[in-house]
Target: Glycosyl transferase family 2
Amino acid sequence: MTADSKRAAFRATPDICFTALIMVRGESDIVWSSLLHHARLGFHRLIVISYLDHDFLRQCIDKLRDDFPGMEVDLVELESQGHFGRRKAFYVNRALSLFIDPKMENYVYCFDADEFLSLGIYPSIGTFFAAFTAGLASGAHDGTVGDCFPLPWLNLIPQRHQYDERDLGGQFLEGDYLCVDTRQNSRHKVLFRKRPGTRVHMAYHQAYAGEKDVPMLPDSETLAFVEASGACVYHVPLRSLSQFRDRLEGPMRRVMSQSGVNPAPAHAELPFDIADALFSACTASQPRFASLAEAADVFGEAITDRKIRAITRFIYRHRVNVGPVLSPRNSR
Model:
């Protein structure tokens, strides 16, 4: 059987193609867990955009192709080092335009390496979508109903704090987690229908129709289905002390330099003892501080800066023990 025939047999809905796109910037501790997780969800195509550390990712791609021969896996390696954040949306949308077949109906989900799509009570993207369409009135799907699925974006804290740097075992899929968000108060990521001219926001929080950034708004049927299914996106941004230091050090250096703490950015690094204490506070089983302002009395005002709060807000957020939510055995 050829690769093309395997892929054709793999498709439960031959007129629809489900595509996942991942942006990888190093993240060798978690990238295989993320790739494996989304391959298990039954996506027909996986587009991998690599920005740093291509060598290990190539090993992951080879293993993925061997383990999932029915799935198309496309790899794009970027070499540019300058102003990546400003061009991320261009890279993502350009890759979608290159790899998606316009003759098919396409649904796309984009994610970073530390994010995991959960389809709630459904084991695969095909069963998720089939259940949605089965619940629609006759002909409803022919219009714009179901164009955009807003998925609550929930931050997790692993209860384990030591991980292998280059993992090919899926080490993040079996652990227990604490969740610091609720579905009602979270931001959202999107699963969307990709039409000609449809683009996605650089952080995947929104999809746009046309060139004037007209947002694709979810309809009532889609909102109700997502909520009933329990579908969401889990985010694992804080995983180990070394990874925490790498994530925090750059923004903290800029904040300290701009505030005049030390005018030389190269020497404004976060001391090891402060990083250790911050990581401990951010990943504690329950918050040790009632607010970020209270924590600033201990760690300094820099942790309240807007550029740092995406990381340091874990200090005061209430946690709920959600257990092994990424485990394939947890799927119902």
Q: What stands out?
A: The radius of gyration is 21 Å. The first strand starts at residue 16 and ends at 25.
